[in-house]
Amino acid sequence: MNGPADMLAADKASSGLGIALIEVRDGYARLRMTVTENMINGHGIAHGGFVFLLADSAFAYACNSAGSVTVAASADIDFVLPAHEGDELVAEAVERTRFGRSGIYDVTVRRGTEIVAEFRGRSRTLRS
Asked: Could you give the CA distance from residue 84 to residue 100 in angstroms, rounded to a whole number?
């Protein structure tokens, strides 16, 4: 990976869903996604998998911001409010700690000022 733009170009899952990179710096990333008709589940709300994917993508950019190849070791999410078609969601990922080849990152997904979901990811940097 040469940089965030290269990572986004190679990330077909995120770019295919219209996820846009707003900001990335060491240990931090902010991404945006608009909920589309194809993301709505049988209850008429955004499928949680798409909300998770947005949060996971922000996590990926934050933990790869230092330039090393880092992947998710595990992650979990708490859904706070439903998202609806047309909602613009913003995921903000923040590094909490890095130790050895591991790290912990928190991601908040918001619709405006409302929290839609809270995500915690644990990363592992691969050996070169």
From this structure: 40
- pLDDT tens for residues 36-89? 999 999 999 999 999 999 999 999 999 998 888 899 999 999 999 999 999 999
Half-sphere exposure (Cβ direction) of 46: Cα atoms closer than 13 Å: 26
d(CA 8, CA 100): 26
Residues 14 and 125: their CA atoms lie apart, in Å, by: 21
Cβ-contact 33, 86 below 8 angstroms: no
Provide the whole-model pTM: 0.93
DSSP string covering the chain: --SHHHHHHH-HHHHHTT-EEEEEETTEEEEEEEPPGGGB-TTSSB-HHHHHHHHHHHHHHHHTTTSS-EEEEEEEEEE-S---TT-EEEEEEEEEEEETTEEEEEEEEEETTEEEEEEEEEEEEPP-
